[in-house]
Amino acid sequence: MDHGASAHRFGRRALAALRELTARLDRPDVRVRDLVAIWAAVVLVMIAAVAAVLLPLLWLLP
User: Fold this and answer.
1) What is the mean pLDDT of residues 41-49?
2) Of 10, 48, 49, 50, which is least surrounded by CB within 10 A?
3) How far apart are CA 25 and CA 29, in angstroms?
């Protein structure tokens, strides 16, 4: 199983969701729920980035 590719796909989906959510910030009726969703997407992108780097390195461990 290619964990790096899986993390990469997850990261791309999270980035797409983040772009969609940040587009909502231009509206005057931004709610706290939208802001929380944006921060959750940011955290998911960060997790995906770390996973994309660290999971392939696990295969190098003895």
Assistant:
1) 84
2) 50
3) 8
List Cα–Cα distances, 24 to 11, 27, 43, in angstroms: 20, 6, 18
Token pair for residue 1? Answer: 């199983």
Say what the pLDDT of residue 18 is. 74
Q: How does residue 41 score in pLDDT terms, banded at 50, 70 and 90? A: confident
Q: What is the DSSP letter of 24?
A: G
Give the length of the chain.
Answer: 62
Tell which residue, 43, 17, 60, 34, has the closest CA to residue 4.
60
Query: Which ranges in the chain belong to alpha helices (H)?
Result: 3-23, 32-58
Distance CA 28, CA 30 (A): 6
